[in-house]
């Protein structure tokens, strides 16, 4: 379909759904959001009006319609499976925000449906792989200039979360990013998972233990610790330090001007994901549009979504049972081997 705009339908017009519509219609090339759907009809209609696209109260109807060529799923996590399955059934390329689904079994059902359909159609929104800083880290690790990576110390800090965010979500919704990007960075699978708690912050609520520390080991023995602290009250802060045999490598921050005022010298920092990773989202969605128009998936696959969720579930089990849990998953189907 070279030359023609890819016609996209977005299901879920909430926070990230709207940022993707905005970037596709006003920043990126080669595509247009022509339809959107949401269970919140009034709100969804107002988004459709703002972006001059057709509104569907029923997301599955939109996915099956001839109005669109490809689908973006940005509903809350429990409904990802339903819409990704509908896209596979319709034979349409689908970009699904992370996690692919909250349950590993649901991710497996998606993998099985895609394999049975005989064509790769699904990409998962693990956008950290598109961040310039993580790409620089990967390049530095891959050629072993600094020897073997031995340990990684990471942090995933959010300013605040609402009361619907509970203890498992720290791993399954937030640290799922580290689970994916660190596996990609090191190019190997995980062996074990463990989760321990720090002292609880006063800013949390009854259903959320915050902060938490997830400890992963890889098959070759690299040890990783990730702090998730999602009610810092003051910052969005993503850290990744890779301790190699001969050097210590740190994830760079996107740069900001230095401001000297009020007897203080400093740099503004990001307060949420939408600005911290804006360049990564733009690259991710542009590359998805380009690959979709050429009839291929070249970003994180449904298999990556499945492996990520199996790992997250092992970490959740480790947390609940207060022990180290081994991570095991099925053999990767030939279908996903490039
Ligand atoms: N990659 C990232 O960094 C990133 C950032 C933010 C959110 N996300 C992911 O994107 C998804 C959405 O997050 P958000 O922050 O935009 O949430 P949100 O709550 O702001 O928006 C979700 C939208 O989905 C709609 N919705 C709920 N159930 C639906 C259903 N059954 N059918 C159709 N629409 C339905 C809601 O009405 C709402 O408009 C989540 O899966 C989240 O994990 C990813
Ligand atoms: O859904 C969001 C999003 O994925 C952000 O990138 C992450 O930092 C948050 O912790 C998570 O709740």
TrEMBL record:
InterPro entries: Gfo-Idh-MocA_inositol_DH (IPR050424), Gfo/Idh/MocA-like_OxRdtase_C (IPR004104), Gfo/Idh/MocA-like_OxRdtase_N (IPR000683), MI/DCI_dehydrogenase (IPR023794), NAD(P)-bd_dom_sf (IPR036291)
Pathway: Polyol metabolism; myo-inositol degradation into acetyl-CoA; acetyl-CoA from myo-inositol: step 1/7
Keywords: NAD, Oxidoreductase
Presence of keyword Transmembrane helix: no
Pfam families the record matches: GFO_IDH_MocA, GFO_IDH_MocA_C
Catalytic activity from the UniProt record: myo-inositol + NAD(+) = scyllo-inosose + NADH + H(+); 1D-chiro-inositol + NAD(+) = scyllo-inosine + NADH + H(+)
Name of this protein: Inositol 2-dehydrogenase/D-chiro-inositol 3-dehydrogenase
Gene behind the chain: iolG_1
